[in-house]
Design brief:
heterodimer, A: about 775 residues, alpha/beta, Anaerobic Ribonucleotide-triphosphate Reductase Large Chain, 7-stranded mixed beta sheet, 4-stranded mixed beta sheet, 18 strands, about 50% helix, disordered C terminus, B: about 50 residues, alpha+beta, two-stranded antiparallel sheet, two-stranded antiparallel ribbon, 1 helix
Chain lengths: ~775, ~50
Amino acid sequence: MLTSIIKRDGRVVIYDRNKIKMAILKAMEASGSTDFDKADQVTEAVESHFNNQNMKNTPTVEEIQDQVEHELMASGLDNVAKRYILYRASRNTIRERKSKLVKVFDEITFSDALDSDVKRENANIDGDTPMGAMLKYGSESAKDYFLKFLLSPDQAEAHREGYIHIHDFDFYALTMTCCQIDLIKLFKGGFSTGHGFLREPNDIQSYSALACIAIQSNQNDQHGGQSIVNFDYALADGVRKTYKKLYLKNIAKVCDVLGEKVSYDQLKEISAAITEKCGAMPKITPDETYVALELEELKKLVKDPAVAEKAQQFALTRTEEETDKATYQAMEAFIHNLNTMHSRAGAQTPFSSINYGMDTSDEGRMVMKNVMLATDAGLGHGETPIFPIQIFRVKEGINYNPGERNYDLFQLAIKVSAKRLFPNFSFQDAPYNLKYYNPDDVRTEIGYMGCRTRVVANTYDPNNEITYGRGNLSFTSINLPRLAIEAKGDEDLFYRNLKKYIDLCVKQLMDRFAIQKKKRVRNFPFLMGQGVWIDSDKLDIDDEVGEVIKHGTLSVGFIGLAETLTALYGKHHGESEEAQKKGLEIIGFMRRILDEYSERYKLNFSLLATPAEGLSGRFVRIDKKRFGEIKGVTDKEYYTNSFHIPVAYEISAYDKINLEAPYHALTNAGHITYVELDGDVSQNLEAFEAVVRCMKEAGIGYGAINHPVDRDPVCGYNGIIGDVCPRCGRRDCEGVPLEKLQRLGLYKHLNAATLGQCGNQLEEADRIPNRI
Amino acid sequence: MTYNPETKMVGEGVKFERIRRITGYLVGTVDRFNDGKRAEERDRVKHTPVGQ
């Protein structure tokens, strides 16, 4: 006798025939059937089926539902059966989803980041901290919700099955990616962070502090990184103000020492009046008219005219050095702050980048020199700063050749990068960057986000083909290797499917854009409220941002060109010229379609060599499961980044650069080329420079050189560490005898009693001498 | 810093920091890389310098 059933979670409950009957009635209703009497008959048939069986085991819900399906068909109620099956399937999906989300939550709650890939999706968020985990719960549930309720079914399926990947999906309906911040515009007249108003900064110290705050505030309004597009030009203003202040103070001091009563405020007034008259002010390279007029005025203030001359002379000779020192300290603070400050509920250090290189003013040069020197020195214990990404703009006529004004800074950039991995190099002379450059408008200098994103062309507003105040809105990547595997050597089929998925991505980007457009200025209190984004200063707090965000880009990206070529033609572009030709055809095809979409919609669709952090493993994991291990395609744990030559392929730097450069021209939404150098490149700057010059000549847009940068926290050694630390001789995780460290001149004030488990200040200070 | 009073050893269990670049950003330790990126970093080979 059917008296009880087993539920999905294993619980045994009393059998209730009404549940079966109700489900059948609902299916009848949905299918338009009015044969309600049959509901009872089918229910009875199901019951008798189980009663006739030898009831050793209690039936499960699934078994009962199977039987209902069977009886509906047997009774000729085919349409009702169909509805019943569909309903059952949709309930199953929802249930499965729920449990998947719960599993993810379990992982966030109970696993260490070391064991959990979910918690290491983004290497700069510490998933083990409370705020990092909280961010992860939110992120995972948002993804679940957006996938179920906001995406169209075809987009959801393509994303879920790994044909496409919608990046920053947890922020799908919330915000846009990134922005190149123009600090000059932001600082003018002061700004508000939403928690208080900050006056226009008045010296280099406050310029550097507010630059950090700007990055931090904007990071909370967007999901991607934040970049300062004009670090040199903007911070130079702070240097000018500091110079002037110190200059006038120096005059006041000398007067004071020599017995004259001249106050700083008096001097400020005189200086302002002269500036009013001749337009000049005190600066590193003195303005003769200013100096002469100032001397006249000074003489009027003092009893002894010789004092005026001495005081001015002192200020003219000493102020530059003092300003230089103040600038160094400000740059040091800037870097320290960006490596320690937090955004997003404290879970993440802001992803920050700064662009510089082409300001030839004394002040701009002072900023660049010192930010690089501070990077060279490293953080408190000599650690390599992780943030900000620094991008040095290389430009012929300004810094590329000996004799050019900023050539010394280019040389310094090479030296610092050979030690600290930053700055990276962007190339203004690459034809597709040079095209937009107008020497009379700094806003046309190329800007890269550290990760590689690039925005400059503007189909929406051709009068604003600039980098300032713009950025990417969102991007979606295509799983190129998948399309290649599925094409089974059929080139036409590959291209047909590629077209299909580009169209799908464009549609999805448009759908997301429709959501973004409806947001209002108040949703982005800093980005839009403070006029950081181009044209947002023309909007009111309740206005929609739809028009102004059209200056941004909608990008389609890709991963694994190397694996794609191998799957289609048997070789990747590092191995065969033919494959390189085919690779350029594929990427050129993608670019052409996106250009057409830009024209059609008057929006900025662009092609991205996707950065792909989380994605590198995701696609290949799915594809390996589907297609098994295919040599050169799915046989690694990752797909090769964008158009890169596979990382494990032996190739010269020269060949790699020249093979990758043509793809930079095609990927207008951003690109980067890496070269890996061995050994201590800081001892071989010529080799380092040769690579940078090779990149420039080949037409690379943005490049960086990787080399080993290791540090032993125990003895503080910085450099290359193989298996054994060259200073203290320990291996990874091994201990070193305290006595040995003391023989090396380390830990000299420490003994067993004072050496704490963590954070002993004496001990920390003791490690500083190691910064040699 | 860890110190083991019995063996008088400093730094047991402390890993070397290996700064590496992924996607354009630096990361202070490979431990924070996801599985895919960790494998990629492991596979990277050096390139012959320009002019050699």
